[in-house]
Every structure is written in structure tokens, then in C-alpha cells.
Amino acid sequence: MIIPTRLLGRTARLRWVHLVLGGAALMPYFLLGAVIVGAVTGGANVYGSLPLQLAAFACALPIAAVSALFPIARPLSVAAARALCGVDPAALADGPAGSRAARVRTAGWFTLHIGLGGVISGMTLALPPFAVALIALPFFAALRDSRLGMPVFDGWTVLLAAPVGLASLLALVCCAAGCGALLARWAPRLLGPTPADRLAAAEQRAAELAVRNRLARELHDSVGHALSAVTLQASAARRVFDRDPAFVREALAAIEETTRRTVGELDAVLGLLRQGDDEVAGGAGPGLTGLDGLLSRTGLKVSYTADGDLAAVPELVSREAYRIVQEGLSNALRHGGAAPVALRIAVDGEGVEIVMENPLSGTAPVVRPGGGRGLLGIAERAALLGGRAQAGPKDGVWRLTARFPVGGAR
């Protein structure tokens, strides 16, 4: 059963169709080759001479190879190979051929396809009628008339006609299966991704990953900070609910304002998902000049000192610095509770420096399920800006420092 399946199974039949399509694609080039051969031979009848037909076939192949150098040829060839050749779709490249090596490989594949396809198509058209006539020859005397163009069979040679006809059909099937298998073997090599394609795909994946990481940091910093602030305000209000209604009203107002602002930031961040990479890289967002509003809603007592012109910091650097401060405040809530925070931001000709300190509460910090990624996000933001960040307990206080150049955003 293995041999019949390889010769006449579904994969073999699809490959046969693929070869016939290659023969059909050959025809325009063959006609052009016939015109060239006819002109060279002084107007000889190309279609009436087998040597001239072979010459036209030989002229057609290089013309086809040149036409396949266009980038669009690879997607068309890949689509046909994936559907009909029975090869692993992942082994073939996507998109037009962008490099010289890819175009040369595609031209080689196209030439091989239409060359083998032309031979198999010609055999498919010619052999079956001839083989059927040979098989029927012993039973119909009229077929043995030489005027029909059949070979002359008489005597015992008539008995050989049927086996020769069957052998012709078997030869056709074997040739089609063999050529189809040859194309399937060469498809990954000629239509597969080149080193340039792999590099472009890796760069695209890296760009997509950078965008996803940026959006994750934005969501973490904005929503995470808001939830930490809301948790602190709600906890404080619950403890003094019966004793200080005025404070409770202030806490609820702060919670309302924080959640409203966070919903707006969340909409802005999610809006980045509908924009291109360039827009994501330069999307608008809160910056250092908006820190006063952040500090007033955080629920902490913050001693804030600013040295230098914060408005002169470039937008991207200012936005990333704002997020670092925001995450630092969220971290202070977890490690220091309601302890006061000292924040200093210095801007000079060399860069921006952020220093944040708060006393440790002495109790275990609030840990979110699955752990947090705030400090890692701060380090990533600082690294993207060409600087560095450090955070940790030191001499009874939690200290966060970050420094990066003003023009160092990458």
C-alpha cells in the first residue's frame, strides 16, 4: 500500500496539479521563446519540429527566471507550494522577496517549477490517449490501420501493445510523483526564509515586544499607583470612620478623584494599542510638570524639592521620569505605610536625577499576589533612557535613586 499511496495518494495528486499549473504558467514564456526561435531560424515552423520546440523551451526558461526576480513572485509561489506541495507551511517565507538572495532563490524555484511542470504537462496531455489506444489495439482491428498514425503492429507484436500502454501510464505516474517530490524537497530551500528574512522577523518581534513592555509598564505604573493610593485612603478612612467624618469625606473625595484620573490614563494607554509604533513611542502623557497634581492625590505627606527647569526636559524623558516617581510613591505606600516621603528632582545640563526616601515602617510590606514588577519597571525605564536606577533599604529608610541623561532616550 505504501507505493500506491506515494504514487496516487492525495499528496501525490496535489503535487501533480501543482506541476500542471507550472506547465500552464510556462505557456506565455514558451510562446515568446517560439517567436525568438522562429526569428532566428528564418520563419521556420517551430511547432512542427521537435528540436525547434525544445529550443523554444530552452529559451523560455531564462525569460521566466528574469520575470521571477520581481519581489511579488515569492508570495505567489509560496501560496501555491503551501497549498499543493505538502510541505511544512512554517518552512516557507512570508512576504515579498526583499533581498537579492531571496529574489535569486525565488527565480530558481520558479524556473524549476515551470520547467518540470512543462515536461509533466506535456506527458499528461500526450501519454494517456496514446496508452489507451495501445491497450485497445488487440481488440480493435481498425486501430492497427497505419493511416491513423499509430505504429504498425502485426502478428505477435499486437500482444505487446497492451503491456506497453500500461507501462506508459505507470511511467507517467512515476514521473509526476518523482517531480512532485523533488519540488517538495527543494521548496524549503528556495522559498524558505533567508538570513535577511530571519533578521527582519527578529527585529519585528523585538519591536512588538518593546511596545508590549511599554504598555505593560504604563498600565502597571498608572493603575498600580492608583490602587495603592486608594487602598491607603480607604484604610485610613475606615479607621477613623466614627471619630472624624471630615477626614472620611476628604478621603472619599481623594479616592473619587484618583479613580477618575486613573480611568482617563487607562483610556489613554489603551488608546496606544490602536496606534502605530511611532505614535506609541511619542504618545502624550503626564510629565514632570504634572507632579503637583500627582502628589496632592497620593495620600502621602511628600516633601518635594525641584532644582532646575522641569519644563525644559524633553517630553519622552519627562514622561518616563513621571512614571518613575509614580511607581516610587506606590512602593513607598507598600514599604512605609503613611510615613512621609522626601522627593528631590534635579535637572542640570547633564541629566535628570530623582531621589526619593521614606522611613521604613518596620512591618512587612504589602505584597500583591504573584509579586510586583515595579522596581524592575523603574530599572527598565531608566535603562531605556540611557541611565540607571537603584532602590532598597539603607540606614532605616527606603531609598530610590534614578539618573539618566536629558537627551539619552532611545
UniProtKB/TrEMBL annotation:
GO terms for molecular function: kinase activity. InterPro entries: HATPase_C_sf (IPR036890), Sensor_HK_TwoCompSys (IPR050482), Sig_transdc_His_kin_sub3_dim/P (IPR011712). Keywords: ATP-binding, Kinase, Membrane, Nucleotide-binding, Phosphoprotein, Transferase, Transmembrane, Transmembrane helix, Two-component regulatory system. This is histidine kinase. Its EC number is 2.7.13.3. It is an enzyme of class 2 (transferase). The lineage of its organism: Bacteria, Bacillati, Actinomycetota, Actinomycetes, Kitasatosporales. Pfam families: HisKA_3. The chain crosses the membrane at residues 16-40, 52-73, 110-140, 160-184. Residues 212-277 form the Signal transduction histidine kinase subgroup 3 dimerisation and phosphoacceptor domain. It catalyses: ATP + protein L-histidine = ADP + protein N-phospho-L-histidine.
